[in-house]
Design goal:
The structure holds 2 protein chains of 2 kinds. By secondary structure, chain A is of the alpha+beta class. Chain A contains 14 helices and 18 strands. Chain A folds into 3 domains: 213 residues, Up-down Bundle (Multidrug efflux transporter AcrB transmembrane fold), CATH 1.20.1640; 81 residues, Hypothetical Protein, Haloacid Dehalogenase-like Hydrolase, Chain: A, domain 2 (2-Layer Sandwich), CATH 3.30.1240; 221 residues, 2-Layer Sandwich (Gyrase A, domain 2), CATH 3.30.1360. Chain A has a 4-stranded antiparallel sheet with strand order 7-8-2-17. In chain A, strand 12 and strand 13 form a beta hairpin. In chain A, helix 1 runs antiparallel to helix 14, helix 4 packs across helix 6 and helix 12 packs antiparallel against helix 13. The model of chain A has no long low-confidence stretch (mean pLDDT 84). Chain B contains 12 helices and 6 strands. In chain B, the strands form 2 sheets. A 4-stranded antiparallel sheet of chain B has the order 2-3-1-6. A two-stranded parallel ribbon of chain B has the order 4-5. The longest helix of chain B has 37 residues. Chain B starts with 14 loop residues before the first helix and ends in a 20-residue tail after the last helix. The C terminus of chain B is likely disordered. Classes of the chains: A alpha+beta, B alpha+beta.
Chain lengths: 541, 400
C-alpha cells in the first residue's frame, strides 16, 4: 500500500512538472514579470485579447474565369479570320463568364468552328445553338480547377504581401464557411486600416489601347457621344485618375481586351525619372508578353499607319494614357503623380504578383490594442474572483477534504494551461470562459465524490471503505457527464469557427484534465491521509 | 458543514406547478419572439456595422446623433457601454447601410462625422485603425528630431503607443500628455504630423449579409448536432426514453434562455451561442447525475414504484445539485459582474442557463420519465418499465 502510494505520488509530480513546463517552458527569470513573459511565450493570446484584425474575403473567382474566356474569344476571332469565316459577334454570356456565344456564322462553318475548338481551345465544349450560333462552355473540370487555382493564388499573393509588411504569426487560409472565401487573421497589427488596403489592392496592371489618342472625357455619356452615341466595337469606358493639379478624373475609351495583363509582369521596382526626378515605377514583362507588346507598340506608334495611345490601367482605373513614341518590347515605366511611398508600395504589389481576381471584404473585425487590454483585464479578474470564491467555499464546506478539492482544481488549471502550451492553442476571451467552466465541472466532480463519501459514512461505513465506495459509485456518473460534455465540445470545435471553436478546444482539454485530477489525484490524497490515520479515526470531510 | 441532510421532498407531486411554471416562461419567450422583440440577432448573424468609440470627455449621445444625422446616417443606434467613467460608446449601423461591395463605408462615414474639427494636413493620433507603430515610426524617421539611429525612433514610437494604449486607455486628450514619456524634441516633431482629436476608435465589427447568413446556419447546425450526439450517447448508456427526456429538458432550457434574450431585447452574438451550447452541456450533466442515481436505485429498490424511486434519487442528489449549481453560478456571476462588455451577453446566457438547467433536470426530465412509464404501463396493461437491466450495457467500473 505504502509503496503503491509512493509510485502514484511520483506519477502525479511528474505529470505536474511536464505540464508546468508546457505552461511556462524554461523561464529566463523567476520574478513575477519573468514568469508572466515565459507564459505569454508559450500560450498565445487570441486577437480579441492581443488586438488585431480578423478578415473574411470573398475571391471573385469569376474574374479569372472571365479573363480566360476573353483570351479564348481573342483566339477564336484570330482563327476565324485566318480561316476567312465571317461572324457577327463573339462575346461572353451575361453573368456566365464560362460561356461564349458566337453569332452569325455561315451555315457551312461547323467543321471550322469545331476544328478551332479541338485544336486551340480544348478547355471548352462546343455546341451549336439557334440561328447559326455556337456556344462554347468551359469544361466543368477545367472550370473547377481554374477556380481552385485562383483561390490558391490569391492566398499566396496575400501571404506574400502580409509577410512583406512584417506581420508576425499571420493566419491566412481557406475559410470553411462559404465557397471561395479566405480567412485572414493578423494578431497584434496596430494599424489594420493600412494593412487592409494593401491586401485588397488587386494590383492588376493592364496595358490597353487608348482610343481617340487618349482623349479624356468629362462623363461616360460624353465619351459615347463622341462616337455618335455608340461606342466602337470591343471597347469600354474606364475612369481615369485625376491628373496632377486637377480635382476630378474623367473617362477614357479603351480596348476591351488588354494587350498585356497582370500575370505577364515579371518584376517591378520603384525609381526616379532622370530629368524631373519624379517618382516612377519600372516594370518588366515576361518574354512572351514582351513579344506581344512589341507587335502592338510597333503597330500603333506615333509614326505608324494607325497611331494610338497606350492606356496603363491599374485596378480598372486608367493611370496615364501616353502616346507611343516607338516600339517597346519588354519593359516600361509608369508615371503619374506618385510619392516615393506610393511608388514603393505599387512596385511591391506588382512584384508580389497581382491577385488573379478581385477581393471583396465580407467581414472585418478589429480589436484595438486598448480594447484587447481591457478585455484581458476583465476576463482574468473574473476568472480569479470566481476561482477564489470556489476554493474558499470548498475549504469551509468540506474542511480537510476541501484541501483535496482545492489541490485538484489548481492542478487541473495547470494541466489545462500546459495542454494549451504544448498544442500551441490560442487563448481567446471565450476560451477564458471555457477555463471558468472547467473549474465549475471540476468542482462538480469533487462534490459528487464527497457527497457520496459522506453518504457512505452516514450509513455507518468505516472511513477507508466509505472513500472506496464513494469514488467507485461517483465514477460512473463522472464518466457519463464528462463524455457528454466532451462530445458537445468536440462538435463546437469542428462545426464552429473562431471563438466558438476556441471555446470548444479549451473545454475538451479542461475536461480531460479534470478526469485525471478529480478522480486520480484526489483519490491519492485521500489514501495518503487515510494511511497516516489510525483505524478508528474520523475523516475530515 | 452540511446544508442538506436526508431531505424528503415530494418533487413529483409538484409536477403541475412545474409544468405551469415552465409553460409560463416558454410561452412568454415564444410570444416575445413572435410578436414583440423577435429574436434579436447581433451583428455577427444579422450583418451590419458596429464601431466602439472612446471619447475624452463624457459623450453627449444627442450631439453624436446630430453629427451622424448631418452626415446622412439617420438610423444609427448609439449606446453607452462599460464603465461610465471610461466614456465609451458603441455606434451601430443596420445591414442596409453596410454594403457588401464597400464594406467599411459605414465605419468610415461614422468616423468622419465624429471628427468635429479636423486639422488640415495632420492625422488624428487617436485613430488606432490607421495610426500604429509604422505610422509613428515613419513620421519620426522623416523628421529625424534626435539625429539618431532608426532603432532609437522605433523605441520612441513604441513609447508613444504604449502611453496612448496602456496609460491613457487608447485616447490622448492632447499630445502634451506624452510629455515625460518621450523627449520634448520628439514631441515637437510629432505635433507637426499629428493632432489629438476628442475621440479614438477602440475597435469594430463589420459583417456583410452573406457571412451573417452562413454563421446563422452554422450555429443552428452546431446546436442540432450536439443535441443529436447527446441523444445517441444516452440511448447507448441508458435507454431511448432517458435520452429523449434529457433532450426535451435541454430544449426547454434553450427555449427559455433564448426567450430571455428576446424579452430583455439583448442581442444574440456568436459568443452567446457558445454560452447556449455550454448550458446544453451543463443541463445535460445535471440530468445525467439524477438519471444515474435512478439507474442505481432501480437495482436496490425492487418493490417501490418508479415515482418513488425517482423522488428518492432526486432527494439523494439534491445536496450535490444545489452545491454544484451554486458554485458554478458563483463563477458565472463573477463573469457577469467583472467580465466586461464583451462577455456580458455570454455570461447573461449562462446565469439564466444554470438556473434553468438545474431546475429542468428535476422539474422536466424526471417527471417526463415517470409520465412516459406510467402511460406505457397503462396502455400495455403491464408494468413495462424501460429501465436499464443491471449489469447489462453501460456499466463501467474502474478501480483506482
Amino acid at each position: 500500500m505504502q509503496k503503491n502510494l509512493l509510485l502514484k505520488t511520483v506519477i502525479i509530480v511528474a505529470i505536474l512538472l511536464i505540464f508546468v513546463y508546457g505552461m511556462l517552458g524554461i523561464p529566463k527569470s523567476f520574478s513575477s514579470e519573468g514568469l508572466k513573459n515565459a507564459m505569454l511565450d508559450r500560450i498565445h493570446l487570441g486577437l480579441d485579447l492581443k488586438g488585431g484584425t480578423h478578415l473574411i474575403l470573398q475571391v471573385m473567382v469569376n474574374d479569372a474565369v472571365g479573363a480566360q474566356s476573353d483570351h479564348a474569344i481573342e483566339v477564336m476571332k484570330d482563327e476565324l479570320q485566318k480561316a476567312k469565316v465571317a461572324y457577327a459577334d463573339i462575346a461572353k454570356v451575361d453573368n456566365q463568364p464560362e460561356k461564349i456565344l458566337i453569332k452569325g456564322t455561315p451555315l457551312d462553318a461547323s467543321s471550322t468552328v469545331r476544328g478551332i475548338v479541338s485544336d486551340r481551345l480544348q478547355e471548352y465544349d462546343v455546341a451549336s445553338g439557334t440561328e447559326n450560333s455556337w456556344v462554347l462552355t468551359m469544361k466543368p473540370q477545367v472550370l473547377t480547377d481554374l477556380k481552385d487555382r485562383t483561390l490558391e493564388q490569391s492566398i499566396e499573393a496575400i501571404r506574400q504581401r502580409v509577410d512583406s509588411l512584417g506581420v508576425s504569426e499571420p493566419l491566412i487560409q481557406k475559410n470553411g464557411l462559404g465557397e471561395n472565401q479566405i480567412l485572414v487573421q493578423l494578431p497584434g497589427v496596430d494599424d489594420p486600416g493600412r494593412v487592409k488596403e494593401i491586401i485588397q489592392s488587386t494590383a492588376r496592371l493592364e496595358l490597353r489601347e487608348a482610343l481617340d489618342h487618349g482623349q479624356v472625357y468629362l462623363t461616360e455619356a460624353a465619351a459615347a457621344q463622341a462616337h455618335q452615341g455608340i461606342l466602337p466595337p470591343n471597347t469600354v469606358v474606364m475612369p481615369s485618375k485625376p491628373r496632377r493639379g486637377e480635382q476630378e478624373g474623367g473617362f477614357i475609351i479603351v480596348s476591351r481586351i488588354p494587350v498585356v495583363s497582370g500575370t505577364d509582369i515579371r518584376s517591378a521596382d520603384p525609381g526616379n525619372k532622370s530629368d524631373t526626378n519624379e517618382p516612377i515605377v519600372n516594370f518588366y514583362l515576361t518574354a512572351a508578353a514582351g513579344k506581344k507588346f512589341a507587335t502592338f507598340t510597333a503597330a500603333h506608334s506615333k509614326d505608324s499607319a494607325d497611331p494610338s495611345n497606350l492606356a496603363i490601367v491599374l485596378d480598372n482605373k486608367v493611370i496615364t494614357a501616353p502616346s507611343i513614341n516607338s516600339q517597346i518590347s519588354d519593359s516600361g515605366i509608369i508615371e503619374g503623380g506618385f510619392t516615393q511611398e506610393s511608388a514603393k508600395d505599387l512596385a511591391m504589389l506588382l512584384r508580389s504578383g497581382a491577385l488573379p481576381a478581385s477581393l471583396h471584404y465580407l467581414t472585418e473585425r478589429t480589436v484595438g490594442p486598448s480594447l484587447g487590454a481591457d478585455s484581458i483585464r476583465a476576463g482574468v479578474k473574473a476568472a480569479i474572483a470566481g476561482m477564489a470564491a470556489v476554493l474558499i467555499f470548498m475549504l469551509i464546506y468540506y474542511r480537510g477534504a476541501g484541501i483535496n478539492a482545492d489541490l485538484a482544481l489548481v492542478l487541473n488549471l495547470v494541466i489545462l494551461l500546459g495542454f494549451m502550451g504544448f498544442f500551441g492553442a490560442v487563448l481567446t476571451l471565450p476560451g477564458i470562459a471555457g477555463v471558468i467552466l472547467t473549474v465549475g465541472m471540476g468542482v462538480d466532480s469533487n462534490v459528487l465524490i464527497f457527497e457520496r463519501i459522506r453518504e457512505e459514512l452516514r450509513n455507518g461505513k468505516a472511513a477507508a471503505a466509505a472513500v472506496d465506495q464513494g469514488f467507485d459509485r461517483a465514477w460512473t456518473t463522472i464518466l457519463d457527464t464528462h463524455v457528454t460534455t466532451i462530445v458537445s465540445a468536440l462538435i463546437l470545435f469542428f462545426v464552429g469557427t473562431g471563438p466558438v471553436s476556441g471555446f470548444g478546444l479549451t473545454l475538451i482539454f479542461g475536461l480531460l484534465a479534470n478526469l485525471f485530477t478529480a478522480v486520480f489525484v484526489s483519490r491519492v490524497i485521500f489514501d495518503a491521509v487515510l494511511s497516516r490515520k489510525g483505524r478508528g479515526e474520523a475523516l475530515s470531510i | 458543514m452540511e446544508f442538506f441532510r436526508n431531505t424528503n421532498i415530494d418533487f413529483l407531486g409538484k409536477k403541475w406547478y412545474f409544468l405551469s411554471f415552465s409553460l409560463v416562461f416558454s410561452v412568454a419567450g415564444i410570444l416575445s419572439m413572435l410578436f414583440w422583440h423577435g429574436i434579436p440577432l447581433g451583428v455577427d448573424f444579422r450583418g451590419g456595422t458596429l464601431v466602439y468609440v472612446k471619447f475624452v470627455d463624457a459623450p453627449n449621445t444627442n450631439a453624436i446623433r446630430a453629427d451622424l444625422d448631418k452626415a446622412g446616417l439617420h438610423n444609427a443606434t448609439i449606446q453607452r457601454y462599460g464603465n461610465p467613467a471610461e466614456n465609451e460608446v458603441v455606434i451601430k449601423l443596420d445591414l442596409k447601410e453596410t454594403s457588401e461591395a464597400d464594406l467599411d463605408k459605414g465605419k468610415y462615414e461614422i468616423l468622419t462625422a465624429l471628427e468635429t474639427n479636423p486639422v488640415q494636413g495632420k492625422q488624428n493620433i487617436n485613430n488606432s485603425d490607421r495610426i500604429g507603430f509604422t505610422a509613428v515610426r515613419d513620421a519620426l524617421l522623416a523628421r529625424d528630431p534626435m539625429h539618431a539611429e532608426p532603432a532609437e525612433y522605433e523605441r520612441q514610437a513604441r513609447r508613444v503607443l504604449d502611453s496612448r494604449d496602456k496609460e491613457h486607455g487608447g485616447v490622448l486628450r492632447s499630445l502634451d500628455q506624452l510629455k515625460g514619456a518621450i523627449p520634448d524634441s520628439v514631441l515637437d516633431a510629432l505635433k507637426q504630423d499629428f493632432y489629438a482629436s476628442n475621440y479614438g476608435v477602440k475597435g469594430g465589427d463589420i459583417v456583410g449579409p452573406q457571412v451573417g447568413a452562413q454563421l446563422r446556419k452554422q450555429a443552428t447546425l452546431a446546436v442540432l448536432f450536439s443535441l443529436i450526439a447527446m441523444l445517441v450517447y444516452l440511448w447507448f448508456r441508458f435507454e431511448l426514453i432517458y435520452g429523449v427526456a434529457a433532450v426535451v429538458a435541454v430544449f426547454h432550457d434553450t427555449l427559455i434562455t433564448v426567450g430571455a434574450f428576446s424579452l430583455t431585447n439583448q442581442e444574440i452574438t456568436l459568443t452567446v451561442i457558445a454560452a447556449i451550447l455550454t448550458l446544453v452541456g451543463y443541463s445535460m450533466n445535471d440530468t445525467i447525475v439524477v438519471f444515474d442515481r435512478i439507474r442505481e436505485n432501480v437495482k436496490l429498490m425492487r418493490r417501490e414504484s418508479l415515482a418513488e424511486i425517482v423522488n428518492k434519487s432526486i432527494n439523494q442528489t439534491l445536496s450535490r445539485t444545489i452545491l454544484t449549481s451554486g458554485l458554478t453560478f458563483l463563477t458565472v456571476l463573477s463573469l457577469y459582474l467583472f467580465g466586461g462588455e464583451v462577455l456580458h451577453g455570454f455570461s447573461f446566457a449562462l446565469v439564466i442557463g444554470i438556473l434553468i438547467g438545474t431546475y429542468s433536470s428535476i422539474a422536466v426530465a424526471a417527471p417526463m420519465l415517470v409520465a412516459y412509464t406510467e402511460w406505457r404501463s397503462k396502455s400495455s396493461g403491464r408494468g413495462a418499465i424501460p429501465l436499464p437491466t443491471p449489469g447489462a450495457k453501460g456499466k463501467v467500473r474502474v478501480k483506482v
